[in-house]
Amino acid sequence: MKKVLAGLAGLALVLTGCGSSNGNASGSGGTSSAPQAQTLTVYAAASLTESFNALKTEFEAAHPGVTVKYSFGGSSTLVQQLTNGAKADVFASADEANMNKAVQGGVVDGTPTIFATNKLTIATPPGNPKGLKTFGDLANGGLKVVVCASQVPCGSATEKVEKNTGVTLKPVSEEQDVKQVLAKVESGDADAGLVYVTDANTAQGKVAQVDFPESAQAINNYPITVLKDAPAGDLAKQFEQFVLGAQGKAELTKVGFGTPAQ
Question: Any idea which positions bind molybdate (predicted)?
Fold first, then answer.
């Protein structure tokens, strides 16, 4: 009888051990299947703010546990920060010239890909109180015009239009990114500002838009790339493909970005 009881006790211990082992395995499995918290850092041109913020929501929804952190600004400023050692995973520039600087600075992993195009327009206060109709009107005396600084993509595009039209502007200020130009117009500090079509589109109601045909002579190509030694390299590649894919194109075209030639 004692042997039987001892055997039953041993069996109970074995069963208890198995139950405990299964419980731990289940708990371990639950832990391993839980979304891993990750941060994806993206440096992007200021003109991409609205589109990329929309993509942030979609990308995070498709990648539980991931948080997309943006640093928006003038492409030239972002390149300088990256080449000076700032850590990020992805860089999206508003022109190829600044992306080339990033490549030459040794911070790019792979070959950048063009994902969108953009062009300039004239932004004025609502109602276009100065009655501007052409690019040449921006040279009228007494007009407070704001543009981007020459090293910034929108500033470089402005200079191309000036050269092609023979019109020389005398801006009251040169800003470090296109959103700063837009802000000067919205606040009434400027009578007009040269911004991208996408910026004017997203500020509808706050500014009026005056398109001019010469803007087609200064189209900006937007490249995107994964950065060298990206802290979240695999995730960076997924984000790049997300921007290049159907969802990225949908959000970009929604605000007026053009599609690059294939």
Answer: 47, 75, 178, 196
